[in-house]
Write a structure and sequence with these properties.
Helix 4 runs parallel beside helix 5. This protein is 36% helix and 19% strand. The chain starts with a helix and ends with a helix. The protein has 175 residues and is of the alpha+beta class. The chain is globular, with a radius of gyration of 21 Å. Strands 1-2-3-4 form a 4-stranded antiparallel β-sheet. It has a single domain, classed as Nuclear Transport Factor 2, Chain: A (Roll), CATH 3.10.450.50.
């Protein structure tokens, strides 16, 4: 009987981590609001963008914020109904096609708050250029919230909202 109780106690301890919490809980020992963590997150997000593996799953649903993905989904559905084109480029590679030597690296992480951050990316795709993405902290990690944030409001989310309105007008669904 004592052996059974000891084994049950040992099994219970092995199911948790050192803080005696379930292992499926967020790891609070990692500070996800640092430039180095955000750099690593962006590297993970962009690691296979311009490869066949990168096109094998829905990167938008995996790595975009919930509100951004909802806008993209609504705009995409309405564009399909209205027989309009949403994008004539791939926002992940920042172009229509990707060069064989496509690459992406983080040049700067800044304006980090509890819920938002900005990241400047160096993208090589048939030439070198820099672009900025906006991140949103949700679901215990960083997700892309805009591919072209701007202070004047003329960002991707604005484009998606305008596209939704235009498609609704075309379809006679405008309110």
């Amino acid at each position: 009987m004592k052996t059974t109780i000891i084994l049950l106690f040992a099994a219970t301890l092995s199911c948790g981590n050192r803080t005696n919490t379930a292992t499926n809980q967020p790891d609070t020992s990692i500070d996800k609001h640092t430039g180095s963590y955000i750099r690593q997150r962006i590297s993970t997000i962009y690691q296979d963008v311009a490869t066949p593996a990168g096109y094998s799953y829905n990167r938008d649903s995996a790595y975009c914020s919930q509100r951004y993905y909802a806008l993209m989904t609504e705009a995409g559905q309405l564009c399909d109904e209205a027989e309009e084109m949403l994008y004539d480029y791939d926002h992940w590679i920042d172009g229509q096609d990707s060069s064989d030597d496509w690459s992406c690296s983080v040049s700067r992480v800044y304006e980090i708050t509890d819920t938002t951050a900005l990241v400047d990316l160096n993208i090589h795709n048939f030439g070198d250029h820099t672009t900025t993405i906006a991140l949103r902290f949700e679901r215990d990690d960083w997700y892309i919230d805009d591919f072209t944030p701007s202070a004047d409001g003329q960002d991707d989310k604005h484009f998606l909202r305008q596209t939704i309105l235009q498609c609704k007008q075309i379809l006679g669904k405008a309110q």
